[in-house]
C-alpha cells in the first residue's frame, strides 16, 4: 500500500478554500442564526436582552454574505435550504434548525428571503416581529406579510413567494449530495461502533442508541438505493479497522438482507447485531489481536473466546429485548460454519440462525479483504469471493452465498479490473441485473497511464447494437499495477 | 398534568388576533385533553388485561378524541421539551417525573417534534400506543423511541430527532471519555502494518491444523487472480424453489424462539466456565434472565431458570467447589430490595399469578429477600399473594427471625400484622418476646394477631403472655386470647380462664365476652371444674345474686366440656322445676350442638386474619 504522499490530489482537495464553500458555511450560520432569532423572539420580546446577541450575529453574517455575494437569497426547496444555488449541508446539528425554518417559511407561503443590502437592528426587530405575527391561517399569508414589511420600511429583507423549484443546477448537486450523505452515514456508524466497543472494553454500560440510529440511516439508504454503501466498505482504514470492520459487516449484512426481502424492522435488528458481532473482541488486548506471528495456545484461546465474551457483554444491556437476543445469538454463532464446525464448540448447538449465517458470510468477506498485520497484501474482493465460492463453499449457506454474489456482484466494489479496451478500472458499484457487468471507474488508460477517468457502466450496449460496449477481461492485483483503490472509491 | 400553561405572551393588539387566540385556546384544550386520554389509555394498558372492558372504554374514548382532534385541527404538531409537549407553543402535557413522563422519554432519545397527520389510521393509533408502551416499559429497558418509530414506519406520524451526540452535548445522555490508561490513546489499537508485517506470517492456532474460519482468515490455497466463472459450477440466479426456501428461512427467523435459544446458549456457557470470575460473570447473565422473567410476571419461567441455575451450579461445584458460593451470591442478589421492590405493581396487575409459584420462587432466593418481601407485604393488594409472601417468609426466615422482628417497628399496622402472622407461623420460642411487644401495639388488629401467633407456641412464656392479654383494653383481643388459650385444653389454661372469670372487673364486661370466656373454659377444662360450674347453675350468685345469664354461661361451659360428668349435671338440671333453669340448659346444649354442626355465627376469632380479608388495601387503621 502506498503512503498518502504518493496519492494524486483528490478531486475535492482544496475545496475548503473556494468561495463557494465559504458561502455555504456562512449560509449555514445565517440559517442557524435566523432560527435562533425566531425562537428567542417567540419566548422573549425582541426588546429583551436575550435577543441582543443573536441579533448582532445575524446582522454580521448578513453583512459578510452581502459583501461577498451582493444580493443573495436564503430559500427552502423541498426538504433543503439553499443559499443562492448552493444547497446547505445537512447534518445532525443543523437538521432541526433547518426543518424549523423550512416549516416556518412554508406556513407563511414563503420560499425564503432575498437580502438586498446590509440590515440594521431596528429593521431586523421589525422583521422578526412581523414574521411571527403572520396569520398562518390566512388565505394568503404572504400577501399580508409582504405589505406589512413595506409599511414598516423593512426594505432589505424581501420575502419570496413559494415557487415550484427550478431543477437543473440543483439536481447536479443532488447526486454529489447523496454520495456525501452516504459517506457521513458511514463515518457516523464507525463513530457509533467505536463508542459501543470502548464502553464494552471499559466495562461501562453500553448505550446502543447511537449504533441503532446509525444502522437506521444505513437501512434507509440501502432501501432507497440512492447510493451504494458497499463501495465504502472496500476502503479499509487501518487505524479504525476494528470498528470499520463491524460497520462493513453491518452494511454487507443489511444489503444481503434487503436482497432476501427482510422487512425494515428485521433489517434494523440484523444491522445492529452485525455491528455487535465482534463486541467480545473489545476485551482482547491489542497485542494479541495484532500479533503478526503464530499465537500461543493461550492467545488462541483468548481469541476464540470472543463470541462467548460478546454474549456476556450484550447480556449486560439494560433490556433483554428482541434485538439484544438476536445480537447475542449472532455474537455466539458468527464463527460457526453451516456444517456446525468452527467455534465455539459448546453444548449441543444444532443450527445457525439466519442472521448468523448472513453475518458469517459478510464477516468472512470483509475480513479477507482487510489489511492485516500478518499479511502484507489483503485479498482483493474478487479473490475473497472466489475463496468463499470455491474452496470454502461448504462452510456457508449455499443459498445465502448465492444471494450474496447477487448483492455484491461477481466483481465486488473495490476490485481492480482489466477491461477489453485495455484500460484499467476500479469497480465502484455492482449492477443488480448483471453481476458480471458492474460500474467501473477508469484509473489508467490504454497506455497504462494514470487518469482520473470516466465512470463506465458495463451493462451499457453499443448504440444500435446488441453487443456490450465494454467488458471485463480479468481481475487484477492492485499492487501489481500501482492502483490506489481507495482514491477511486472516494 | 395537562393544564395548558402559557409559555408565550401573545400580543393582544388586534381584535382579529384575539379571536384567533380564542380559537387557538380551544384547540390547545382539545389537544391537551387528547393527550390526557392517550396517557390514561397507556396506564390502563399496564393495569388491565387486554380483554378488560375498562381498557376498551379508554381505548374507544381515545379513538373518538383522536379523530375529532384531527378533524377539527388538522395535522397536530407537537414540539418536545424536556418535560413538556408543546402545541402552538402552549404546553399541552407536562410531567416532570422522569420515570413516567412521556415528554421526557421522547426528549432523552432526541425526539424534538412529532406530527400526527390527518388521515391517521386506527391501526396506526394502536401502533403508537404500542410504541409508547414499549418506550415506557422498564422491563424492555425503555426501548429507544426513535428506533420504535422508525421500525413502525407510520404513514401519518412524522418525527424530527437530533443525533445522539447532540443529546450528549445537552448533558442528558451518557458519554464516556476515553480511558486515559488505555493503550494507544483510548482506542483499540490497530497498528499500521508496514513495519510489523515484514514476514508473511499467517495467523494460526496453536496447532498447524487449525483451519477454523475466523476474522483471522488465512486460507492455505493460493488464489488465482482471475478465474473462469463458468468453471465454478454455480448458477447465480436463484431459482423459484430457492427463493421459496429463502422466504421460508425468513419466516422461521421471524418466529424463532429467541429467548429459549439464548437461554440454551447462556446455559452452555455457564456449564463451560472454568474460572471463578468468568463463572460469576456467566451466572450474572443468567441472573438477568431470571430477573427479566420476574419483571414480565412469568413466575413459572423465573422458577425454572432459578432451578436450572442451581442444577448447573451444583454439577459444576462437584469439581469447582467455590462455584457454589458464587451461585448463592448471585441468587441472593436477586433478593435485593431495589429489585424486588418493583415487583408489587406486577403482582397487583396480575391477580392470576400462581401464589404457589410465588412462594416457591421467594423461598429459593432465601432469607436475604426477607426485607424486600416484608416491604412487598405492604404494597401487594391481592390476598392470595400476601398469603404467598407470608408463606415464603415463614419458610425462609425460620432460622433467622431478626429481619422479621426488626420490621415490628414499621409504621404501618398492616405490615406489622403480617409480620406477626409470619412469626406465628414460625412459632418457636425465639419469637415470643417480639410477639409480646406486638401485644402492646396500638392497633387492635396487630394485638389480635399477636394473640393468635402466641397460640401457636407451646411454652409457659407464651401462655403467660396470652393470659396477660385478658387485660387488654379491647374486648375482641381479650376474647381472642381466651379462645386461643382454650386451645391448650389443659387445666392450667382452664385455671387461668377461671381466674379471669372470677376477677372483680369480669362482671363489667359485656355479655357476649363473658359467654366466650365460659365457652373457652368449657373447651379446655376437665371434670375438676364440673362442681364449680354446677354450683353456678344451681345457686348462681357469683355475680351478685341469682342471675340468668350466669346460669346460662355455666351451662354453656358444661355443654362445651361435654364429658359424661358434665352432661350428667346438665341432664339433671333439665329436670329442674324452675323453667328458667331448664330453658338455660336447653339453649346451651342447642348452641353447642349447632356449633358442632357448623351452624350459627362464625366465631369472632376469624374476623380479620392477616393475608386474608383485609390488608394494605384497607389503608390506615
Ligand atoms: Fe469475530
Ligand atoms: Fe468479525
UniProtKB/TrEMBL annotation, chain A:
Q: Where is the HD-GYP domain?
A: 220-420
Among Gene3D superfamilies, the record links this protein to: Hypothetical protein af1432
* A Pfam family the protein falls into: HD_5
User: Which InterPro entries has this protein been placed in?
Assistant: HD/PDEase_dom (IPR003607), HD_GYP_dom (IPR037522)
Q: What is this protein's record name?
A: HD-GYP domain-containing protein
Lineage of origin: Bacteria, Candidatus Eiseniibacteriota
Automatic annotation (TrEMBL), chain B:
Q: Where is this region: Disordered?
A: 593-621
InterPro entries xrefs: ARM-like, ARM-type_fold, PBS_lyase_HEAT
Annotated transmembrane regions: none
Provide the GO MF annotations for this entry: oxidoreductase activity
**Pfam families on file:** HEAT_2 (PF13646)
Family annotation (Gene3D superfamilies): Leucine-rich Repeat Variant
Q: What is this protein called?
A: HEAT repeat domain-containing protein
Amino acid at each position: 500500500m502506498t503512503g498518502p504522499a504518493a496519492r494524486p490530489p483528490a478531486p475535492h482537495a482544496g475545496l475548503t478554500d473556494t468561495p463557494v464553500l465559504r458561502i455555504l458555511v456562512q449560509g449555514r450560520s445565517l440559517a442557524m442564526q435566523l432560527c435562533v432569532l425566531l425562537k428567542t423572539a417567540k419566548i422573549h420580546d425582541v426588546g429583551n436582552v436575550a435577543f441582543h446577541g443573536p441579533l448582532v450575529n445575524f446582522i454580521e453574517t448578513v453583512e459578510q454574505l452581502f459583501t461577498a455575494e451582493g444580493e443573495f437569497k436564503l430559500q427552502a426547496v423541498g426538504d433543503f435550504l439553499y443559499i443562492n444555488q448552493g444547497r446547505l449541508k445537512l447534518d445532525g446539528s443543523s437538521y432541526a434548525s433547518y426543518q424549523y425554518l423550512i416549516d416556518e417559511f412554508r406556513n407563511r407561503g414563503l420560499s425564503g428571503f432575498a437580502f438586498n443590502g446590509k440590515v440594521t437592528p431596528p429593521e431586523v426587530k421589525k422583521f422578526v416581529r412581523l414574521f411571527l405575527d403572520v396569520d398562518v391561517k390566512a388565505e394568503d399569508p404572504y400577501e399580508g406579510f409582504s405589505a406589512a414589511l413595506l409599511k414598516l420600511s423593512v426594505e432589505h429583507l424581501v420575502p419570496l413567494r413559494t415557487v415550484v423549484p427550478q431543477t437543473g443546477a440543483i439536481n447536479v448537486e443532488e447526486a454529489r449530495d447523496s454520495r456525501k450523505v452516504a459517506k457521513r452515514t458511514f463515518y457516523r456508524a464507525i463513530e457509533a461502533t467505536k463508542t459501543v466497543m470502548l464502553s464494552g472494553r471499559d466495562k461501562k454500560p453500553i448505550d446502543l442508541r447511537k449504533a441503532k440510529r446509525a444502522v437506521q440511516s444505513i437501512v434507509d439508504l440501502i432501501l432507497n438505493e440512492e447510493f451504494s454503501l458497499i463501495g465504502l466498505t472496500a476502503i479499509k482504514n487501518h487505524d479504525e479497522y476494528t470498528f470499520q470492520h463491524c460497520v462493513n459487516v453491518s452494511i454487507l449484512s443489511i444489503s444481503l438482507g434487503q436482497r432476501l426481502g427482510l422487512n425494515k424492522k428485521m433489517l434494523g435488528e440484523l444491522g445492529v447485531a452485525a455491528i455487535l458481532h465482534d463486541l467480545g473482541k473489545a476485551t482482547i488486548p491489542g497485542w494479541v489481536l495484532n500479533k503478526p506471528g503464530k499465537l500461543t495456545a493461550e492467545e488462541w484461546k483468548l481469541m476464540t473466546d470472543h463470541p462467548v465474551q460478546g454474549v456476556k457483554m450484550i447480556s449486560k444491556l439494560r433490556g433483554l429485548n428482541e434485538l439484544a437476543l438476536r445480537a447475542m445469538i449472532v455474537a455466539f454463532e458468527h464463527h460457526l460454519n453451516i456444517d456446525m464446525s468452527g467455534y465455539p464448540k459448546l453444548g449441543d448447538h444444532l443450527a445457525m440462525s439466519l442472521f448468523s449465517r448472513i453475518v458469517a458470510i459478510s464477516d468472512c468477506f470483509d475480513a479477507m479483504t482487510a489489511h492485516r498485520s500478518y499479511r502484507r497484501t489483503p485479498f482483493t474482493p474478487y479473490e475473497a469471493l472466489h475463496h468463499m465460492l470455491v474452496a470454502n463453499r461448504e462452510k456457508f449457506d449455499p443459498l445465502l452465498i448465492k444471494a450474496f454474489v447477487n448483492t455484491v456482484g461477481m466483481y465486488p466494489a473495490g476490485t481492480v479490473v482489466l477491461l477489453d479496451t485495455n484500460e484499467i478500472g476500479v469497480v465502484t458499484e455492482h449492477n443488480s441485473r448483471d453481476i458480471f457487468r458492474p460500474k467501473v471507474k477508469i484509473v489508467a488508460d490504454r497506455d497504462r497511464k494514470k487518469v482520473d477517468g470516466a465512470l463506465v457502466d458495463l451493462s451499457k450496449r453499443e448504440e444500435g447494437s446488441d453487443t456490450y460496449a465494454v467488458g471485463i477481461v480479468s481481475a487484477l492485483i492492485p499492487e501489481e499495477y500501482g492502483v490506489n483503490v481507495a482514491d477511486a472509491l472516494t | 398534568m395537562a393544564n395548558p400553561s402559557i409559555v408565550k405572551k401573545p400580543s393582544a393588539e388586534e381584535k382579529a388576533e384575539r379571536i384567533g387566540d380564542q380559537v387557538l385556546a380551544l384547540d390547545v384544550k382539545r389537544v391537551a385533553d387528547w393527550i390526557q386520554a392517550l396517557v390514561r389509555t397507556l396506564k390502563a394498558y399496564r393495569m388491565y388485561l387486554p380483554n378488560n372492558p375498562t381498557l376498551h372504554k379508554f381505548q374507544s374514548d381515545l379513538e373518538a378524541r383522536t379523530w375529532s382532534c384531527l378533524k377539527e385541527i388538522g395535522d397536530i404538531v407537537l414540539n418536545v421539551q424536556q418535560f413538556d409537549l408543546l402545541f402552538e407553543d402552549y404546553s399541552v402535557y407536562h410531567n416532570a417525573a422522569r420515570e413516567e413522563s412521556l415528554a421526557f422519554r421522547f426528549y432523552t432519545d432526541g425526539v424534538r417534534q412529532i406530527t400526527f397527520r390527518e388521515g391517521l389510521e386506527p391501526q396506526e393509533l394502536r401502533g403508537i400506543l404500542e410504541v409508547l408502551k414499549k418506550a415506557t416499559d422498564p422491563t424492555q429497558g425503555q426501548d429507544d423511541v426513535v428506533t420504535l418509530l422508525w421500525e413502525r414506519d407510520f404513514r401519518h406520524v412524522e418525527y424530527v430527532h437530533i443525533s445522539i451526540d447532540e443529546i450528549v452535548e445537552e448533558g442528558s445522555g451518557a458519554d464516556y471519555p476515553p480511558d486515559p490508561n488505555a493503550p494507544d490513546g483510548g482506542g483499540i489499537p490497530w497498528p499500521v502494518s508496514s513495519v510489523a508485517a515484514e514476514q508473511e506470517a499467517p495467523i494460526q492456532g496453536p496447532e498447524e491444523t487449525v483451519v477454523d474460519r475466523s476474522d483471522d482468515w488465512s486460507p492455505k490455497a493460493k488464489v488465482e487472480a482471475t478465474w473462469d466463472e463458468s468453471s465454478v459450477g454455480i448458477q447465480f440466479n436463484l431459482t423459484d424453489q430457492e427463493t421459496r426456501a429463502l422466504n421460508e428461512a425468513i419466516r422461521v427467523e421471524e418466529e424463532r424462539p429467541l429467548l429459549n435459544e439464548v437461554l440454551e446458549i447462556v446455559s452452555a456457557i455457564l456449564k463451560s466456565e472454568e474460572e471463578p470470575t468468568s463463572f460469576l460473570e456467566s451466572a450474572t447473565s443468567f441472573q438477568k434472565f431470571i430477573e427479566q422473567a420476574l419483571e414480565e410476571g412469568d413466575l413459572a419461567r423465573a422458577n425454572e431458570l432459578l432451578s436450572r441455575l442451581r442444577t448447573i451450579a451444583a454439577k459444576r461445584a462437584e469439581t469447582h467447589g467455590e462455584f457454589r458460593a458464587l451461585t448463592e451470591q448471585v441468587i441472593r442478589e436477586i433478593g435485593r430490595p431495589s429489585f424486588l421492590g418493583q415487583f408489587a405493581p406486577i403482582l397487583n396487575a396480575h391477580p392470576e399469578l400462581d401464589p404457589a409459584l410465588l412462594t416457591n420462587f421467594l423461598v429459593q432466593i432465601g432469607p436475604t429477600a426477607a426485607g424486600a418481601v416484608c416491604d412487598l407485604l405492604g404494597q401487594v393488594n391481592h390476598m392470595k399473594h400476601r398469603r404467598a409472601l407470608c408463606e415464603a417468609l415463614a419458610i425462609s426466615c425460620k432460622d433467622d427471625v431478626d429481619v422479621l422482628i426488626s420490621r415490628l417497628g414499621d409504621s404501618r399496622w398492616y405490615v406489622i400484622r403480617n409480620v406477626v402472622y409470619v412469626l406465628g407461623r414460625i412459632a418457636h420460642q425465639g419469637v415470643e418476646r417480639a410477639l409480646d411487644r406486638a401485644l402492646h401495639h396500638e392497633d387492635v388488629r396487630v394485638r389480635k394477631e399477636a394473640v393468635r401467633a402466641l397460640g401457636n407456641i407451646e411454652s409457659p412464656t407464651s401462655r403467660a403472655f396470652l393470659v396477660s392479654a385478658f387485660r387488654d383494653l379491647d374486648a375482641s383481643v381479650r376474647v381472642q386470647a381466651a379462645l386461643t388459650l382454650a386451645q391448650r385444653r389443659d387445666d392450667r389454661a382452664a385455671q387461668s380462664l377461671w381466674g379471669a372469670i372470677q376477677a372483680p372487673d369480669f362482671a363489667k364486661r359485656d355479655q357476649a365476652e363473658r359467654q366466650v370466656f365460659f365457652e373457652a373454659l368449657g373447651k379446655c377444662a376437665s371434670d375438676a371444674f364440673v362442681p364449680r360450674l354446677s354450683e353456678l347453675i344451681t345457686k348462681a350468685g357469683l355475680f351478685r345474686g341469682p342471675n340468668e345469664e350466669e346460669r346460662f354461661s355455666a351451662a354453656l361451659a358444661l355443654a362445651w366440656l361435654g364429658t359424661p360428668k358434665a352432661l350428667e349435671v346438665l341432664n339433671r338440671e333439665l329436670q329442674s322445676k324452675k323453667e328458667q333453669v331448664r330453658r338455660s340448659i336447653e339453649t346451651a346444649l342447642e348452641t353447642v350442638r349447632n356449633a358442632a354442626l357448623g351452624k350459627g355465627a362464625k366465631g369472632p376469632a376469624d374476623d380479620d386474619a392477616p393475608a386474608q380479608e383485609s390488608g394494605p388495601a384497607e389503608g390506615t387503621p
